[in-house]
Amino acid sequence: MPYTEDEMLMLSGIQHFRYCPRQWALIHIDKVWDDNRLTAEGSLMHHNVDNPFYRHKRGRIIRLQSVAVASAQLGLYGVTDLVELRPTTSSFFLNHPLYPGRWQPYPIEYKHGLPKENDADELQLCAQAICLEEMYDVPIKEGVIFYGKTKHRHTVKFTSILRDNVEAYSERMHAFFNSGKIPAVEKSRKCQNCSLKDLCNPSWSKQHGKVKEYIRQNLYEEIT
Ligand code: SF4
User: Fold this and answer.
1) Which sequence spans correspond to the domains of the chain?
2) DSSP codes, 107-175
3) Can you tell me which atom of ligand 1 is nearest the CA of 194?
4) Is the pTM of this model over 0.85?
5) What is the CATH number of domain 5-189?
6) Are strands 55-58 and 9-10 parallel, antiparallel or unpaired?
7) How far is the CA of 35 from the centre of ligand 1 (A)?
8) Atom of ligand 1 at shortest range from CA of 23
9) pLDDT digits (tens, 9 = 90+) for 194-223
10) Nearest alpha carbon, ligand 1 atom 2
């Protein structure tokens, strides 16, 4: 059943959820955010891409930046880094009010760092594609992730397995969000690079349980 507007969650959260459900819940349920060096550099890289008034034509390809997307089926909404519109002869195509013709949308996501060990980036890009498909009724078979550190383009095929995984993660995110529960700590190697490691504090959490209490004691006192 489609989700209502009030039930929509942020699409970018799917990469947090894939990385660690607890990290996602701290950000999206507890509304905690702690910018570390990795996310700060990532924000800088996104600065130019996130200009909502920016679109241009490169050769025969139109490039649209910061396109708002949403899917009622997934219950996710967000903003893509870049959508290229490539000319197509297919009978499934997108119309653009400023650029007459038949266009095939092609989502592109920019990442600051290296390709991840898991498929978090692929899931995010695929979720964007599913949104675009739902909005414009046009099938999208692939997209690209551009990695800043290696400066390479990674083509992502939107296979049925990847699509099923997007759906499954989205369902789990909604289930956690509705329950309001923060998943337990799963301490592992990934905690080293986690933006929230100081707030989550895996070893502390193991002994004392609740992050909210830690935040109340350590942050609220500073700002009141
Ligand atoms: S520190 Fe580890 S357990 Fe805590 S949110 Fe980050 S990745 Fe998850």
Assistant:
1) 5-189
2) EEEEESSPPPSSSHHHHHHHHHHHHHHHHHT----EEEEEETTTTEEEEEE--HHHHHHHHHHHHHHHH
3) 6
4) no
5) 3.90.320.10
6) unpaired
7) 14
8) 5
9) 888 888 876 654 444 455 554 455 444 333
10) 191
